[in-house]
Amino acid sequence: MNSPPSPSDPATSGPSGFDERLSVPWWWYLPAVGVAVLLGAEIHMGYPGLRWWVGYAVMIPLVVAVLVWLGRVRVQVVDGEVRAGDAAIPLRSVGRVEVIRDADAKQMALGPDLDPAAHLVHRAWVRPVVRLEVTDPEDPTPYWVVSVRDAESFVETLTRSTR
Prior knowledge:
- It is built from 4 helices and 8 strands; from the N terminus they run βααββββαβββα.
- The longest helix is centred in the first third of the chain and has 18 residues, at 29-46.
- A hairpin with a 2-residue loop joins strand 3 and strand 4.
- With 163 residues, it is of the alpha+beta class.
């Protein structure tokens, strides 16, 4: 016999929270494959004959793999913590949250105002960044700066999860 859900149990089944992969824009693949074809042609010109295909067979998958590797980072709010890249912080240690959209403000946040001890997960192709204050006195990291495409949903999930 199943017991009734407690008030602390989530009302939905499955994972709730925020999950975003900071992948490169899809259109980057077109010029990247074009550059790979040009590099393959350079190799082809240096090694004509039966080995003409080697440059293409190496360069095209290599360039696509680099783009996939660049976009492998995930930002998540799951299991009571925020995860950005390889780091995680408990939600109870997240203080003030600030969304930075303006280009000048972003430049200041990532440049002169950036504390060297801050945790930074930035991708240039993702416009907004979110600054999360770390309130844990034992943590040497003063704050996190994280690139997120859907900043409103991220902040809403943080707010909903910390209640």
